From TrEMBL:
Source organism, top-level taxon: Eukaryota
Classification lineage: Eukaryota, Viridiplantae, Streptophyta, Embryophyta, Tracheophyta
A biological process from GO: dTDP biosynthetic process
EC number: 2.7.4.9
UniProt name for this protein: Thymidylate kinase
Length: 212
């Protein structure tokens, strides 16, 4: 029996608008899984620790100006530079809980007016998530939550556009979770969805690539 195809980890992705609760829910989920003894790591994109990530970070902080397509490709490159590591983690049985992925890449850039298919193209061949958890919060509600920071994109009108593009990207495999429920209520729902997904992956669900 080829054990390498068995018992792989799951790629679980959080998506949603800024201030939708992704970061706190992904942290809570990761500690829950760790307590249960599930091998898991918390990842996020952009990964600001790499050189490409530092360019992205400077752009988001308005410390540098970049052409819209250039920054789009940097966000994509930032995922590509982690792809090999991502695949080996998954195949060695470690699940990854990732705060934002390709859908953020496409939704934010197309909200600026770039063609959606053009935005998807550089994402083709990245690993497809096993589960996309979309925290659904109306842009107006998200804006009320402790205010946005000062980074680029953190403005209500722009977030409304991003919300429209997210709804175009949605497919039936996404789990749309009401992000206006209580923190504990959301957590409870996520735990159920994720446990099921991890089971399916352990049973040998193949690793596939974007864009399905
Ligand atoms: N963002 C994030 C993009 O525009 N494209 C991408 O590919 C990714 C991963 O970066 N407003 C945007 C969405 C956020 C910003 O993300 C920084 P975070 O999760 O706030 O660090």
């Amino acid at each position: 029996v080829d054990r390498s195809s068995l018992s792989r980890g799951a790629l679980i992705v959080f998506e949603g608008l800024d201030r939708s609760g992704k970061t706190s829910q992904s942290a809570r989920l990761v500690s829950f899984l760790k307590e249960k003894g599930v091998p898991v790591e918390a990842w996020r994109f952009p990964d600001r620790s790499t050189r490409v990530g530092q360019m992205i970070s400077a752009y988001l902080a308005n410390e540098s100006q970049l052409d819209d397509r250039t920054i789009h490709l940097l966000f994509s490159a930032n995922r590509w530079e982690k792809r090999v590591q991502m695949e080996s983690k998954l195949r060695s049985g470690t699940s990854l809980v990732v705060d934002r992925y390709s859908y953020s890449g496409v939704a934010f850039s197309s909200a600026k007016g770039l063609d959606i298919d053009w935005c998807k193209a550089p994402e083709v061949g990245l690993i497809a998530p096993d589960l996309v958890l979309f925290l659904d919060v109306p842009p107006e509600r998200a804006a009320e939550r402790g205010g946005y920071g000062t980074e680029r994109y953190e403005q209500l009108e722009f977030q409304k556009k991003v919300a429209q593009y997210y709804s175009m990207l949605r497919d039936p495999t996404w789990e749309i979770v009401d992000g206006c429920l209580t923190v504990e209520g959301i957590e409870e729902k996520l735990r159920g969805l994720v446990s099921e997904c991890i089971d399916t992956c352990q049973k040998g669900k193949p690793v596939t690539n974007l864009w399905p």
